[in-house]
From TrEMBL:
The lineage of its organism: Bacteria, Pseudomonadati, Pseudomonadota, Alphaproteobacteria, Hyphomicrobiales. Pfam families: PD40. Gene3D superfamilies: TolB, C-terminal domain. Belongs to the TolB family. InterPro entries: 6-blade_b-propeller_TolB-like (IPR011042), WD40 (IPR011659). PANTHER family: PROTEIN TOLB, PROTEIN TOLB HOMOLOG. It comes from Hoeflea phototrophica (strain DSM 17068 / NCIMB 14078 / DFL-43). This is Periplasmic component of the Tol biopolymer transport system. It comes from the Bacteria.
């Protein structure tokens, strides 16, 4: 099997394999009602009911080049996707959770979605503009994008804290890829990890006490797939870091928010090397 969709139980450290498939699937989201996961694969979107796991297609109309930057609105009514069908580069769209015709959100491309504000009003995303990569937000009520931070390196993975006060992201702005956070309203960024590993895709837990992230070996360039990686948990009370799991993964493992609604579990994808299939 190329991909295994799994759930990690925080209290016990156990892993449940939900679905194994020869397809390349990526980036699980958990629906707010706790009954299903959302993944992408082959440019399409799928719902995986936990009661009877299967890849159930979601109708995204003309948007058939979806990448692994997608998620579910806090009220569970809408799905946000990043798709390049119409624009040739990643663009952010929103559609009903059950499927339908997407509404274009970002005017500028490329843009890759990563976070939905807890009140449901705003999206956070990565954009590549004239001065390189940066973190941006945009209101779903309309209007122009708001620039939050850019310059001096790569920026990726913006995800809101559960109280909406901060946006977490990863950046190599100081030379190595670490986790950062910045006030959602703008302000000075704060570096949150300082080690020799390449740390990506921070996801604050629903209780706001810890942050899950993907950690590559030192000096890893970018966020490649098919690598030996670790899933780590940063405790915000004492800044300690715990390795939860070592696995073969990387790109596609936890690119987007993946916590269960109650914070007791998270979803991830692990892989087998393509040549092993």
């Amino acid at each position: 099997m190329r991909s295994a969709l799994c759930i990690y139980e925080i209290a016990t450290g156990t892993v449940e394999e939900v679905l194994a498939t020869p397809r390349l699937i990526e980036a699980p989201n958990w629906t707010p009602d706790g009954v299903a996961l959302i993944v992408n694969g082959d440019g399409r979107m799928f719902r995986v009911p936990l009661e009877a796991p299967d890849l159930v297609p979601i109708d995204t109309s003309h948007a058939i080049n979806c990448n692994n930057d997608h998620g579910v609105s806090p009220d569970g009514e809408r799905l946000v996707i990043s798709d390049s069908t119409d624009t040739g580069q990643s663009c952010i769209w929103v559609l009903p959770i059950a499927g339908g015709i997407p509404e274009r959100i970002t005017g500028q491309v490329p843009s890759w979605w990563h976070g939905w504000s807890p009140d449901g009003s705003t999206l956070a995303y990565v954009g590549r503009r004239d001065d390189g990569f940066g973190i941006y937000t945009i209101s779903l009520a309309g209007g122009d994008e708001e620039h939050l931070i850019s310059g001096g390196g790569h920026y990726d993975g913006p995800d809101y804290s559960p109280d909406g006060a901060f946006i977490w992201f990863n950046s190599d702005r100081t030379g190595s890829m670490d986790l950062w956070r910045i006030p959602a309203a703008g302000g000075e960024p704060q570096q949150m990890t300082r080690d020799d590993r390449a740390n990506w895709f921070p996801h604050p837990a629903p209780d706001g006490r810890s942050v899950l992230y993907l950690s590559y070996a030192p000096r890893t360039e970018g966020h490649p797939r098919d690598r030996d990686v670790e899933l780590r948990l940063l405790d915000l009370a004492d800044q300690s870091v715990r390795t939860l799991l070592s696995l073969f993964g990387g790109q596609g493992t936890i690119n987007v928010p993946c916590w269960s609604p109650d914070g007791s579990r998270f979803a991830f994808v692990r892989y087998q090397p393509a040549e092993a299939n």
